[in-house]
Amino acid sequence: SYSRGILMCGIVGISAETNVAAEIYDSLLMLQHRGQDAAGMVVCDSQDKLNSRKSMGYVRDVFQQRHMNKLIGSYGVGHVRYPTAGGTGKEFAQPMYVNSPYGISMVHNGNLTNSKELGVQLFHAEMRHLNTDSDSEVLLNIFAHELGKQREIYPSAEHIFKAVSKTHRRCDGAYAVLALITGHGILAFRDNNGIRPLCIGIRKGETRDEYIIASEDALFESQGFKKLRDVEPGEAVYIDKKGNFFSQQCAEEPQKRPCIFEYVYFSRPDSNIDEISVYKARMRMGSKLAQLIKKKNPDHDIDVVIPIPDSSTTAALQLAVDLNVPYREGFVKNRYIGRTFIMPYQEERKKSVRRKLNILDLEFEGKNVLLVDDSIVRGTTSKKIIEMAKDAGAKKVYFASAAPAIKYQNLYGIDMPATSELVASNRTEDEVSKEIGADWLVYQTLEDLIETCQYGNPNIKEFETSIFTGKYITPLGENYLEDLEVSRQDEVKAQREKAKA
Ligand code: AMP
Q: Whose CA is closest to atom 21 on ligand 1?
């Protein structure tokens, strides 16, 4: 199966006059929230030689001074990847490399939904070997095959774009991609829905323009880049090693349908994705929730609004302002512990909530509190936190989720548990409320969530919202959903780990 680990990732590529490794490193640090499991980069020097480093761990641990000293090159790509229990390990770290043609190194954010079928084609018809379950390796080999078929010693932008068009025709799913073509330049492309983000920045060098392409634009300014624009769905952008910029639409029916969960949870608040400020979208999520609460419960007795840090704070603050209720910090987060999702199994996950968040009892004693989180996934965190709030002396604990009920697994690059492990998958709102121990639960409506995002860019007619609706916007390979459901279950993950050990 090629559906084991759906990875959340961050990617960056830079083309400049001088060495780019230090800036790729800084960029990866600013994309660290998109992945903490492994990091890597490859750069190409003036002799057309690749220099690379990748390993498991945080960016700051993967790249030591001795590695940086060797990472000489004026164009390169980098990657951070998120931990999942399946498909973790060094061989999955990116960039991934194929020797032919030219030597291509690729970094990928997203997930293909027909990688099993493509894997079979690659093996039987195209004589390519796949060494991992990673769909990124499939994508890399498909692209390499299509580029190689043109039999050009020196590929032009035109050849490269033709290979991207062919890749689009064969690959289904989500992919924001950067590739370093050895001796030639860097290439970026985005699937025809633009599910995962990718944007371009520019700055003046001495003799030419320098470019950065990355998952998020929050990192541009600190490195002297100005945002040029987003890469469009289906579009490919190629910057040759001399700094010449080429772009072309390579998909047949592109339509912008970005993943709405980037705005809810995944992205940094200081990023703009497809021209929507993540920060402002989150404020609007708070406003919409306030309206909903006033409508559903006009005589509410909420004394205080308390966010569950960090991803809900922006929405919670605006919610409190609009409700005209005090906003208080009731939890203090230990910043030096990884996310609770890193713990593969349920028991460890429960414990780690307590290690991650400390409670300030004095904000809870004798009060009716409204806790706000960006989303409820398994419900483990919310259940534990509500318990903590009650132990701290809260009279009533209400709970608001800035996202609607998550009922279906994500196929497009967000690491989510199996559907059966999602607390809302087979429960009504009231049942979820009971399950997590809340006195009242309110979910954002999908309509409102879409509005909060669309307001920032009315040109976007549709978002990728399948975790709420179960409607997937790309074709799915045979048995894709069923295979994924099984491979994502805790029990199966545990067995897989055991088999490896
Ligand atoms: P739980 O309901 O216990 O599964 O956890 C919900 C919390 O996990 C929310 O506070 C979110 O901020 C966070 N969250 C949402 N999606 C993810 C994800 N894909 N990976 C890690 N954390 C997530």
A: 341
